[in-house]
Amino acid sequence: MHPLWKKVLGSGIWTQVSSIQALRSPARTFSHGKGMRSLQIQIKRLSLDFFMLTLGILSAGFGLKGFLLPNNFIDGGAVGISLLVSEVTGWSLSSLLVIINLPFILLGYRTIGKEFAFKTAFGILALSLAVAVLPYPQITADKLLVSVFGGFFLGAGIGLSVRGGGVVDGTEVMAIYASRRLGLTIGDFILIINFFIFSVAAWLLSLETAMYSILTYLAASKTVNFIIEGIEEYTGVTIISIKTEEIRNMILSGLGRGVTIYKGEKGFGKREDENKEIDILYTVVTRLEVNQLNKEIEKIDPNAFVIMSSIKDTRGGMIKKRPLSH
Length: 326
What we know:
Layout: H1 3-9, H2 11-23, H3 26-68, H4 77-89, H5 93-111, H6 114-133, H7 143-163, H8 171-182, H9 186-204, H10 207-229, E1 234-240, H11 244-255, E2 260-265, E3 277-286, H12 290-300, E4 305-311
Antiparallel strand pairs: 1-3, 1-4, 2-3
Helix pairs in contact: 3-6, 3-7, 4-5, 4-9, 5-6, 5-8, 7-10, 8-9, 9-10, 11-12
């Protein structure tokens, strides 16, 4: 700016104009845009998390009030303890859900983190409110249907809550803490807790109730695994072959899937080229494409060494963006 204009505007106004110009500089604009993008991603993620938590709460509440509570059935974990205590003492289930899970919330804050503890507290308090307020209808009195579908809806609620970054049953938090302290696996610890819960149920209620409750727990645990691990199943395939370029082109063009190439060295046989460098291919396909991939690899190189491993879920890349090739 011309020096005359600087004097006319005055030092204070000129300082403000300079600041605005600095904010409009490419570097500042890029930094500001990056910060806004990060904020948008965080807001979107939190919105999705709380949506999943809300669905989980509604599903778990339906499993409890629509199936388990009217028929005096219980489940495993902290929810099972709450149901058992409520059945024996007559205390409000909604209050017991909060009281019994409160230590797990505090433990989750220390063990996992503040955000997890906040989401868990939200999930447990909301589930308690849903059980106390929402007028869920009683669906059936058939014991087999109650145990299976009660476990299904309760398990779906727990699984959706985990997808949302929290839990509505604090047993797993205790299991994570105990596994670090006692050397037990998480699965072993949960098994011990549930064995104790169902043994007490058989003693205080009846053996038949305990057996149906075990069926409820099995239905719930299978549903939790199904929700957490995802509907789609993937297979990671590692391919070692002397015809890597042909196989790579087949995967890219034929199957429409991505390929990652690792550099390796041959380490088998007694031939002169046993230490020769070789490309190792890695790709991820759906379980429906495994047979087709094996067939095409065998056409190109019948002696190819193929390793397959199960993958629970994937994020990013090409696999969820392209349709299955036929």
